[in-house]
Amino acid sequence: RKEVEQDPGPFNVPEGATVAFNCTYSNSASQSFFWYRQDCRKEPKLLMSVYSSGNEDGRFTAQLNRASQYISLLIRDSKLSDSATYLCAVRTYSGAGSYQLTFGKGTKLSVIP
Amino acid sequence: SQTIHQWPATLVQPVGSPLSLECTVEGTSNPNLYWYRQAAGRGLQLLFYSVGIGQISSEVPQNLSASRPQDRQFILSSKKLLLSDSGFYLCAWSDSLYGYTFGSGTRLTVV
Lengths: 113, 111
Description:
By secondary structure, chain A is mainly beta. Chain A is built from no helices and eleven strands.
């Protein structure tokens, strides 16, 4: 089983739609969770952290289920500018004061006019 | 504020040639530093990480190496490039509290 797995996508949705991304992780000792956004031929940028109680930032809602080792990202009222690849990332302590961030392969989202 | 610089942005190198990619971080001290590679159609693969000067951990055995000669400098090198080394190379830093911040990346094409 891969360490971090995501929906393969791509997702093609109309403007205004609600879209959900799912992610599962295999290491139960993982401590922190994130969603990144990566535009074409650009570096990934942190979209939001995912907290145990769930968190919201405008149209974006992230949720974590530690028991199921599952993370989700919900985008409401999709905009054309939301088109990008969304990467799930899981951070695990690797010893000697170092943390490692493991990424899923990402899910490509295209919002269509 | 912290910034991360990575260069060059694009590089085309022949097979068998050497490689040196540099990454520097400003505005922080003793950061954890990382090199990732993203091959076409594939996910981000961690290559090396460093928790301090001269301390390098390798995640994937290959013909690449990394060095950290200064606290905020991280270098990725190869003595002889292979076609399979083509990809998007990303340097990142972390302060152990939050997610990583990536540099703008180097797109390497080995021909």
